[in-house]
Amino acid sequence: MNTAVAVRPVIPGFWQRALGHRSFVIGGVLTLLLLAAAALSLVWTPYSPYEMDLPGRLQPPNARHWLGTDPFGRDISSLLLVGARSSILVGVIAVGIGLLVGTALGLLAAARRGWVEELIMRVSDFSFAFPAILSAIMMTAVFGAGIVNAIIAIGIYNIPTFARITRASANAIWSREFVLAARACGKTNLSITIEHILPNILSVLIVQTTIRFAIAILAEAALSYLGLGTQPPQPSWGRMLSEAQTLMYQAPLLAVFPGLAIALAVLGLNLLGDGLRDLLDPRLARKR
To answer: At what angle do helices 76-112 and 147-174 cross, to 10 degrees?
Structure first.
């Protein structure tokens, strides 16, 4: 008797579609490289990023220093690895602040409606008048430059974005039939929000988080370039660009390497966000 056994695919449906999505794959690879560089810097770098070697300053790429050395004789590859760690640290904390606070405010606005929703949305509109760089400049004038103030400024800038997206997505779910049925069963707004609203908008928040992460890396690099973000001796991609601008003709590669690192990190996160948007949107998923 011939018994044929049907073997299910090893890769679940989502990952099967994800591996066939070009933007998701490219963005995922670039993002993993960013995370791998930051993780590697925790345990190993070719040279100490804080060790200066003035006789060996401004060396071109060679066997000892793969990407050359900077004006202080520090190894550029080591600086790039540790700089990735700084960018991820700022991005995770700043986006985390925006995600937690903004999502909570957006859910509250959608659940309560009325004057509560109006107040939260008007405060969010007012916050858009103070972008991350302007907020960091104001905080620097009061508290001094530093990575903590940069994180707070970028985090505050992310709050209204998450609040508006959460509120718009949650309002669409509140009008669905299953939410009306939950209300008819006597569930409170809090339980409906936790059990029904939040799970249904989670995909939107995941996509927005990846996009805001890329923006946070750009903002941190811009603030460090202006001297308002990560402070010496901690390496930063933005400050590496700032230090290289006076040596563009003498050593142009000093600006190329950190600029390329920022571009690839932001490109990877944006492509990952676009891929996740296509994969997590049921309407787009059905078309594929």
So the answer is: 40
Peptide bond into 233 cis (omega under 30): yes
CATH 3.90.850.10 fits 84-281, yes or no: no
Taking every pair of C-alpha atoms in the chain, what is the biggest distance, in angstroms? 83
The two three-digit tokens of residue 122, written as one number:
């008007």
Q: What is the C-alpha separation between 145 and 135, in angstroms, rounded?
A: 12
Is the pLDDT reported for residue 43 higher than 60?
yes
What count of other Cβ atoms lies within 10 Å of the Cβ of residue 115?
8
CA–CA distance from 57 to each of 147, 235, 251 (Å)? 27, 17, 11
The sign one gets for the Cα dihedral 192, 193, 197, 198 is negative
Q: pTM to 2 decimals?
A: 0.87
Dump pLDDT digits (tens) for 77-120. 999 999 999 899 999 999 999 999 999 999 999 998 888 889 99
What are the structural domain ranges in the chain? 84-281
* Interval 150-180: pLDDT, tens: 899 899 889 999 999 999 999 999 988 888 8
Q: Nearest CA to 203 among 106, 101, 275, 126?
A: 275
